[in-house]
Specification:
Structural class of chain B: mainly alpha
Strand content of chain B: under 5%
Strand order of the largest sheet of chain B: 1-2
Number of strands of chain A: 8
CATH topology of chain B: Formate dehydrogenase/DMSO reductase fold
Order of helices and strands of chain A: HHHHEEHHHHEEEHEHHHEEHH
Order of helices and strands of chain B: HHHHHHEEHHHHHHEEHH
Number of domains of chain B: 1
Number of helices of chain B: 14
CATH class of chain B: Mainly Alpha
Oligomer: heterodimer
Largest interface: A-B, 79 and 73 residues
Amino acid sequence: MELDPLLLSRIQFAFVVSFHAIFPIFTIGLAAYIAVLEGLNFRNPDPVREKLSQFWIKIFALVFGLGVVSGIVMAFQFGTNWSNFSYAASNFLGPMLSYEVMSAFFLEATFLGVLLFGRDKVPRGVHLFAACMVALGTFISSFWILSANSWFHTPAGVELVDGHFQVTSWLQAIFNPSLPYRFSHMALASFITGGFVVAAVSSWYLLRGRNPRSSRMALRMTVIMLAVATPLQLVVGDLHGLNTFEHQPIKVAAMEGHWETQKGAPLVLFGLPDATAEKNHFEIAIPYLGSLILTHSLDGEVHGLKSVAADDRPPVAIVFWSFRIMVAIGVLFIVLSWASLVQMLRGRLFESRRLLTALSWSFPLPFIAVIAGWFVTELGRQPWVVYGMMRVSEALTPSLTGGMALATLIGYVAVYTVVFGAGVYYLRRVILDGLEPIETNEDPDSARPKRPLSALNTAFDGDFLAKGG
Amino acid sequence: MENIDLTLIWVVIIGVAVFMYVLMDGFDLGVGVLFPFAPDDESRDLMMNSVAPVWDGNETWLILGGAGLLAAFPLIYSVFLPALYIGVFLMLAGLIFRGIAFEFRFKSGASKHWWDKSFSIGSTIAAFAQGAVVGAYIQGFDVVDMKYAGGAFDWLTPFTVMTGLGVVTGYALLGATWTVLKTEGATQDWAFKASERLLLGVFGFFIVVSLWTPLAKPFVYDRWVDNAEWLWVFPLLTAVVSVGVWRSIRRRQELMPFVGSMLLFGFFYLGILISMWPYAVPPDYTFWDAASAPGSQLFLLIGVLFLIPVILAYTAFTYWVFRGKVKPGAGYH
């Protein structure tokens, strides 16, 4: 059998980028949370909140480390497997990635050192400043990378000259049409991800009666944030969808499972899209609702997949289903966060065992939703690498053989399995270990620990002691 | 803008960024290379603690090197990476295993020795791969129509194995002299001894590369012979600084061995650039052939002029925060 370097490279890219994406999506939200905790503590020192912050900094350090090492891979992936694309798009992509490194990566990496190891070495204000710089860095980084990513979907400010992209307007290229929507959607996604992870861990502690004061504090903060962020995400997601409908109608057709171009298109709730038969099997649909959502008119025209040649269509079934998974989780999040808010306002949240149990199991869901969302948008872009301008098949490294691509694909899967396995194992240990106990006779000003954070007391195997908080 | 050569400015910027990477990640990779040879576990803890707050920032220079090449010299990016495909993977795998070791090692009990191995083997492979990249650059690439046209293992030759081992030794020297600077007592005694031996090794590799390269590459030979009237300064300076480092180690000075070793790296680096100038992708393409559009170079240059000084300032601040000796037990982790 002939190994196809194109397919193998696509699988490899999807694998390494999905693996990488789950870390920043969490650390962006968590960095902001830590900065808020540190800021509150700076104004009004509170040993409970201080322990809480230290605990989440431990988790942050671990997850950020995984994000850094998997991010280095991304810096080279374009060149190793997609050198034709890198060369063609370098005039735009190169400066974008360089600006990301210079304005964000150095900021995060350098101040993380101070945040992690500098608590007793720098004044409190400087430590808070470091926490803020780490949070700011994660945001700036997501701006640049999402701008570059958005440009793949809605390229602007460039022209193709002899197969080479030349930038004609930096402003148009950077602030390309889908950036505002994609950036808002992802920023909210990272807050929601961070929020549900914090809520899940806090609920888990509360169910077991551990670290009750800090867990209540954390849960109260996150429930309020989530109750605002999750419905807002529905609105932003809808706007993002409308923007996609305007610029990439065929992607939306795949998301909606629309084959025919029609006025008064239905909203397909369920169906099994079949790319060969060019129709959905077992379709359940609500008439006119599709047009109403996408065009805000009952008989608005909606493009179908069959309006373009089969070669120009994305893989329908996976886009269709990933979209439904993402939306379902989003709706579930709204229900869960509002149920929690209502119970909290009634003063019953911390006693509602069923709700706490549901929250404690919610932590994988934001990651699944984010990956599903990325599948929708990136697979929906196929067969283009730069939408309407350059095909994925033109992007591949010419010297790459199937054997080489397979070797590194197996290599990355093996390396990431070990890394991820150890990371998850250790995260579990940190969470089982819990927060450091608070000595009640401590006065708040001397509450700063002699040893700075890092998960110093948690042992990897065997010798760990459960602690209460 | 016509009288300003943006490409030349970018050669300097990328040259400085790569050199920053070599120096900074060089010493922390070197600490990893030396790890198995450290006298005991406590020394290993100290060595790792000495680089833990800064390694992440150091490695960011590598990402800047990658992204900067894509921005300023896309031909280098799109030829080197496909040509060094397998080597790049090995380097990245090495960097991953050493990077996660920082987070996991201190939290592990019985499995600690696995993370020791992860750290040292990962660091050594990454250092070797980087040395092989230097060798492959000197060796040149099979490029047709601006695209790499060679095989997966063209880069792996006796010459690149030698440059790979040379860089492993060189990074180990930086790591050893860094350890001298950051530790005391038994660990420092050991680091002094290691520095002495590694300096000899580095000097050996310097002589081998200096003879092998011109013999294998006629244009490098011509370059040095034709410009012998001023280029003799470089071997002389290298020899003088090597002797200086040797004496400072013997006199148990703490800062000079590290500074001197970095200086040595600077001479090697300049020596390679002088040999290869003006080729970015040897044997055919110069830096001007490899350059991106002037508009892109200019757009990024503006950011570089503002941001790099800021980066250098807060990087210096962190090194200052974590200055002085690493103490056992207390302090870092």
